[in-house]
Amino acid sequence: QVHLVESGGGLVQAGGSLRLSCVASRFIFSDSFMAWYRQVPGKERELVGSITRDGDTNYPDSVKGRFTISRDNAKNTVNLQMSSLKSEDTAVYYCYTRYWGIHYWGQGTQVTVSS
To answer: Is residue 114 within a helix (H) or strand (E), and if so which, with residue range?
Structure first.
């Protein structure tokens, strides 16, 4: 069973930075597509960054230039560096992978940006 554990969430002031980490286990991490999503109550979960096994990244316009996703295959970790945070970035952030066609999610970590 794929296991994803996020950490690094918390309270930060607008304009500040935060780094989220996701440690993955029980699957071949280096071969896997990884992503970060976020969700606020009443809204659909939205993608904030993805990275392929080859290191190609993708971001929505809402975070492009502010968020950076990276992976460390030696540590089975995917990170999300967030900077110039805004109040609208407040959400629960989830680590995601797709393995053998099955979607897996971490438990989520809360990020709160105070204005």
So the answer is: strand 109-114
For 49-68, give one letter per residue: b (16+ CB within 10 A) or e.
Answer: bbbeeeeeeebeeebeebbb
- Nearest CA to 30 out of 56, 50, 54, 5 is that of 54
Phi, psi of 103 (to 5 degrees): -90, 135
User: CA 33 to CA 78: how far, in whole Å?
Assistant: 10
CA dihedral 41, 32, 81, 56 (to 10 degrees): -110
Q: Give yes or no for a contact between 9 and 110, defined as CB atoms under 8 angstroms apart.
A: yes
Distance, in Å, from the CA atom of 111 to the CA atom of 56, rounded to the nearest integer, reads: 25
pLDDT per residue as tens digits for the range 74-100: 999 999 999 999 999 999 999 999 988
Q: Which residues contact 42 (CB under 8 A, 6 or more apart)?
A: none
